[in-house]
Design a protein that fits this description.
The protein is mainly beta. Strands 1-2-3-6-5-4-7-18 form an 8-stranded antiparallel sheet. Strand 1 and strand 2 form a beta hairpin. The two termini are 20 Å apart.
Length: 333
């Protein structure tokens, strides 16, 4: 199988072709079986392929809890968060890699899944009768299954990570060291509503993984109006009304791990109407604003934007959580 630097599973040969270094080592990350089949090296950089095994039983349990009709009916962001948390196929992770003690710099990553036909049938059992060839994996996933000899009795999540050299290239490595890190996932842990009399209110919320209790103190929630006349596309009307919430959190937690978001979607931009016509949505995404508090101890949250002022806003408190702890492994090649 040909692997290229700065390519991905669907990216073809846009980078330099790399030489394979077979690894073929398996280990458990928590309860999940991980296969590291090979690392690929060359003067331009290196690529690591990782295969994560997913039991069919786990996918069956997920599809039973979230059948196709329920997944298609999702509306709230919290629902999508929960589906992603429950889906054993959502296995994206990052890896720090060293070859012969020399650390490399992660440049990009991509992933692709492979499923047995039985799993496709589970996920579509309530739909119309299957047509021949309806259930099929991507060609690239099939190529990975063949190249790495993965069992077809289970599901697989394939990750490809592109690295750049930080020093001299290691083209004949003797030792591979890896630090696996699960991606952060958003989890909604609480809700509250703000109106005109917000100042001084407090909200208690528990971290969904650790149980640590946090106190959110609300300082003010002020209406804002933003004029997009000088930065918007010509012929388009943008929602201008929103609110900025000022708050603080105790005990302190990194801003990367804690956030407050508006529960409601914002209004979409509209095309300006010709005389005698009504303006209509132009299909663009909703508009969002961000802000930074002038008071160092305080944080800001921006509401969604609307064409008319909104007096009351329902917010959700979101933590960023890792599903698994870090995992370090080393192999002599």
């Amino acid at each position: 199988m040909d692997v290229y630097h700065n390519g991905n599973f669907r990216g073809g040969s846009r980078g330099s072709r790399l030489a394979p270094v077979p690894i073929q080592r398996t280990f458990l990350w928590e309860k999940q079986e991980i296969l590291v089949p090979a690392v690929y090296v060359g003067p331009a950089g290196a690529v690591l392929d990782v295969c994560a095994r997913i039991p069919v039983e786990d996918m069956a349990a997920f599809l039973k809890k979230w059948p196709r009709e329920r997944r298609l009916a999702l509306a709230a962001p919290e629902d999508y968060e929960q589906v992603d948390a429950d889906n054993p196929g959502s296995q994206d992770f990052l890896v720090e890699m060293s070859l012969d003690g020399t650390p490399l710099q992660l440049a990009s990553s991509s992933s692709i899944n492979w499923y047995p036909e039985s799993v496709f049938r589970m996920g579509n059992e309530a739909s119309a009768p299957a047509q021949e060839g309806e259930w099929a994996n991507d060609l690239e996933a099939e190529q990975l299954m063949e190249a790495y000899g993965c069992s077809r009795g289970c599901c697989w999540h394939f990750g490809r990570l592109n690295f750049n050299w930080t020093g001299e290239p290691v083209l004949s490595p003797k030792k591979l060291s890896l630090d696996f890190r699960a991606q952060l996932s958003p989890v909604t842990a609480g809700y509250f509503t703000t109106a005109a009399d917000t100042a001084g209110q407090t909200v208690k919320v528990a971290h969904p993984a650790t149980g640590q209790e946090y106190t959110v103190t609300l300082h003010e929630c002020l209406p804002i109006r933003h004029d997009f006349a000088d930065m918007g596309a010509p012929g388009v009307l943008y929602p201008e009304h929103g609110c900025m919430l000022s708050y603080s959190v105790s005990p302190e937690i990194s801003r990367d791990l804690f956030d407050i978001r508006d529960c409601a979607d914002g209004d979409k931009p509209r095309k300006k109407a010709a005389p005698g016509e009504h303006s209509r949505s132009d299909g663009a995404a909703a508009v969002f604003l961000a802000g930074k508090s002038p008071v160092p101890q305080r944080r800001m949250a921006a509401s969604s934007m609307h064409f008319e002022p909104v007096e009351e806003i329902r917010w959700r408190i979101v933590f960023q959580v890792r599903k698994k702890p870090h995992m370090e492994v080393s192999f002599v090649i």
